Amino acid sequence: MTASDPRAPVPSPAPRPDAGGAGATPLPTLVAPGDVLRILLVEDDDGDAILVEELLSDASLKVELHRATTLDHALELLPARPVDCVLLDLGLPDSVGLSAVERLRAGTSPPALVVLTGHSGIDLGVQAVAAGADDYLVKGEVDGDLLGRSVRYAVQRRKSEDQQRALYRSEVRAAETRRLERALLPTPLVQDERLSVMVGYVPGGNGLLGGDFYDAVERPDGSILCVIGDVAGHGPDEAALGATLRTAWRTIVLSDAEPAAVLPLLERVLVPERSRPEVFVTLCQVVVDAQRRHADVYLAGHLAPLLLRDAATEIRPTARGRALGIPIDGGWTPQRVQLGGKWALVLYTDGLVEATLSDRAAPDAPAPEGAPSRPRRLGADGLLHTVDAALADGAEGLVERVIRRVRDLHGGPLVDDAAMLVVGRFGDGDGPGERTATLADSDEWSR
Length: 447
Prior knowledge:
The protein has 447 residues and is of the alpha/beta class. It is 33% helix and 23% strand.
């Protein structure tokens, strides 16, 4: 007799409507008859252990059987040895009763658990299942087929629960990403169709949200204001602050404030909104004049943009101001850059230049003999060469190709978030410019 009948069918997960009102949760991975099940038998009686081994053999199960004679021994084995199912006796030298079930269930993502004991009381079986066991079998009342079905169904239930948890985490992450995209990845407000505006953002591999943000706005006089910024730190507080500052920056620009007044006003928003007084923001603001002849670059502790003409070049800063939120004297003086007929400006965050090069990325020069081995970073020069090489294949998809190349050199997802904004006039400038966006955490970037 069992407290829960293992012959009952495993319920399928309930259908989950998606945003469009259709679709369902995919069926969980099934336990196939030929699968090898890793079973840990927690039993101190040698005779009972032999009996269980024979029952598993009669069940025609392919098993990898391990044994522990005490609960403490079992708890030591579980972290180091992957197990699909635990067969537990309730009468152990170091544990009697349901405390063993509770201790086995206390871990993270515990395996399936079937209580296999000599106690025939129905109440005890119900209590064991209520405490977290998947099933309760009595040794003298079970045969090989019943034990086999109980183990398979318990493992299947556990797989289904694990998939439901993974699905829930995926849904939370997707909702988080949509909020991130709406807040940090706005649609640039640039009406000049001759200008190309290409933007991109990819999250760091640590899975935490970052505070990178950017925007581009065309004002009524035809001038273009662009910004890219980076809130120090990672996490929801920094992401929320980045979204707040991006919205504040656009609001200030649309209110026709003078470009020189934007950063002081933005700092006034930052100080009361930040979660801690040590949080600061680096930022680069670019103002392109209405005739597209020159650009004024404001640097607030941020990396200088790249200028693309015949080739990519780094703008050498002559006027670098302090980061926003740092309580020292000093403001922000613009640096004027001449553009010409064919040009583009590349604004980016430090997640790109701080990418370390993997072993597959050949160094430009060998390290000095005896020098300590340290991970080499891509750096501004490396990014410059990467952009230059990508530009040789044309401007189409430039941002995506550059970020992909940096990820390849790094050998996988970047540690830090990376954002890039490219605005400019490629080719003869008479045709329509390119408008592209590489969005955070898309399926394409997760592969």
